[in-house]
Fold these 4 entries.
Entry 1:
Amino acid sequence: MKAPFSIFICLSLFLVACKTEPKKSTVAEAEPSQSILEKIASAHGYENWKAVKEFHFTFNVDRDSTHFERSWIWKPKTNQVTAISANDTLTYFRKEMDSVAYKTNGGFINDRYWVLAPFNLVWDQNNFEYEHTESVTAPISNSPMQKLTIVYSNEGGYTPGDAYDFYFGDDFILREWVFRKENQAEPSMTTTWENYIEIGGLQLAQDHKKPEGGFNLNFTNLKVVTE
């Protein structure tokens, strides 16, 4: 007759143990909300950039019957850049530039911006002021889009004080932009962002065209080497 009593004791202890075990929270911890800069960068694959060892690209400008190109190999972890043109090849570290490298680096900064501007929104965020407008009419397509305007500081850099207007939809992928030199009211250049390709988890626009035609700033030989 002792067995049932023992079973009752064990069962009681089990129930007490169950009742006293702390409950795990079922409410997920809220993640910090992303800024508009981070949302645009993330939509273009920014989270995959940390694995990039080398980024290769050729910057092309096709204007009517003329063609211009120059190629780059960038190793972001060491900030080594190789510039390749029809006449010369130059390799330099961006932290150790002589006058020749500094001049060449101006071209690199320009060309890289055209293909990686969504990431520059994060990289440069301490060097510009920005304003986000949720509903505007895009200048080329005349479609309703969101707009992000950034104005760079007047201090330092290759083009101080310049402004950019980025146009994008609810997916935060860039579709059009306007460059305004020295933050002037009138556009200096307006182009599309189109013909996207995914390489190494990065969303890269291959073509930038003017609305009037006869101009295509485009990228070829895109290559991403990851760890």
Entry 2:
Amino acid sequence: MGEVAGFRKPLDWLKIAADGNLFVTIFEKGPTGNLIGEDLHGNKYYEDNTTTYNRKRWVVYKDLTDYNPSGIPPEWHGWLNYINDFAPTQHDFKRPVYAIDAGVTKTGTLAAYQPKGAWINPEKRSWVKYEAWQPPKA
């Protein structure tokens, strides 16, 4: 089935209408704000300085029907939540040595962490309450 206005299925419109925040973002704020930038995932960030405080900045996700807010990079997260006033397009942030690339959370998928004893993890759980420390092998 082909796409109509960028949507794969007619039911995508129902999902957008049911999600009030997404509806407001697309139909009320999307066209009126100034495009500040785009991240590596394709999400677009907007700002409108004529509106009230704390409603000036928002994101329009690349995939409107299957979006995940955990995929927002840290530098854009700081700008969206007013932690800093510098958008990553206007300021070069120094990355900490320990920083890793931000990605979408795996919670709720088969790739999520499953401890021993979880029904989806094939490893058997050791019911021993105490394990002696073993030094690493050299």
Entry 3:
Amino acid sequence: MSNILISAAALIVAVVIFRFAFPRQFLRLVLLGARRIMGLRTRSVEFDGTRWPYLLGGPESGEVLVLLHGFSGDKDNWLMYARGLRKNYRVIVPDLPGFGDNARDPNADYHMDAQMRWLLAFVDAMGIDRFHLGGNSMGGYIALKFVLAYADRIQSLALLDSAGVLGKTKSELQIATENGESLLTVSSPEEFDRLLKFIVYRPLPLPGFIKQPYCEDLIAHRLFLEAIFWPMAEEMQERPLNDQLHAIVAPTLVIWGRHDRLIDVSCVDVLKAQIPNNHCVVLEETGHVPMLERPMESAAVHVQFLSNCRAATL
């Protein structure tokens, strides 16, 4: 028994040392384990000389659901949310170009129309014809662009605190952006902590081995991220999609956090008034990322919505 205890203690010490000495590698191991627990696998597809990493889960025979993360996010933002959908749907969650494990090419075009065309190339390379599409924040902006350009490819649309639309009330982010201040890029650990509090309603209990690598990445790629953010913000301000929403024919689910400080909840009224076939849900005590703040609740809403869509086509 003493030998077992000694071995267990040695293992714990080794894990602790590895965690603090190699936080980035430890985080990768944790994410790998989390993906497996959630029933998702890491895959990639290559096209036009580009490798797109993505998460894959669910039955091969299931209808395809593609989920798009937001600005400075990655595919793992959807881990807990995707778990609630993979039982009946073929869930595919890519890293968008410039984020996560996808390529960061400073010479590439990251405007929303370019991201939309990349998404088209991605689903074509995957052999996907018609599919359900969902997106959060910037991912929702891309999803809106896609459904407006390729309506025949989309079975349903889900928008979680989506960018691309202007509401009646300006958000804190919108006001700061108009004043030339970027609140979504950071240059110090203190600014990173401020960013986390800005995005969510209640601070997420993130351990240091998770915060440190993400903080370091955001600081290291600050200028790159700003080069993506400012054109997107300017396009959203000067050419919002408000007057095109009436053309969306796909059944559309809108999920929004009541306390979103980045994109104001008044956008829900715009989406509800303009999109013909919509279902809107506002979550209380929730900020900008419902799939992280309330993953089970928001995923359950999405599952029910998809079930209703399927029933309507029978």
Entry 4:
Amino acid sequence: MAFGRKGPKIVEAPPVEDIADPTAWILDNEFANFVLMNTHEIKYMCMIGYTFLHGCKVFKKFKPDAPFSYKLVNLAMACTGGGILVPIFLNTVPVTLSIDAYPIAIMISYLLHTYIPSLREVLELSGIFKAVVILFYESIRAYVVTLFTGLAASTIAASQFSFPVFGPIICGTIGGCGGAFLPLDKGLAPLHDGLPAPVFSAFVGATFFHLFTQLYAEEVVDCKKKGKVIVALWFIIYAYVKAGLFSAPSTKAPEAPKTEVKEAPIKVEKTE
């Protein structure tokens, strides 16, 4: 018979079954891996594509004799306008000061547009090249919109509702299109002809991401990551539609130009 204190009784825990995730397919693919920018290489590549496409819009408005400083500052404002305005609203550091990769990507884009301007023509002529650049561009926009929407949701205190509703949506929208309003001397000129496509897509994306992450944070596994993928998919598809990349090429033969045949006037001679 053994005497003394007995050792602790080891109780084996019952096996824990894996939680079924019916929406796991949203993240289990290479598209999600790309738009979430899980590697630095993907992020830097998308940054260059983002700044390059902004440069295509900005450099068209420059005069040939515009100075270097004017071009570079305008390009920087167009690329990081939302990243400047929203941090000011939330009392944080603008992205141009906090992320060193942005100035590097902006400078690379400036050099490409200055010394290889033919790339802008290639973008207009090649549908494949345009689709790739838009993919890079919209991936960064989705990252920025979801980042500032989430940051505003955690910074702004709730008032009438259980969570802040309009503040994060407004911040996310500005984050995705703030460059259109900089420099500030433009005023509301970008809205004179109606709501621009980037403003509309950013508003829809910010609204969806904010409500999705606030209402389904406990029900959906990896809610924020899946919300980012869905927003990126929305941005890319909408941009492709606006760029005409989904329109089928016309197979109708061109019509021959119509030529009008003028009848010569008939002269009637009088005979006596």
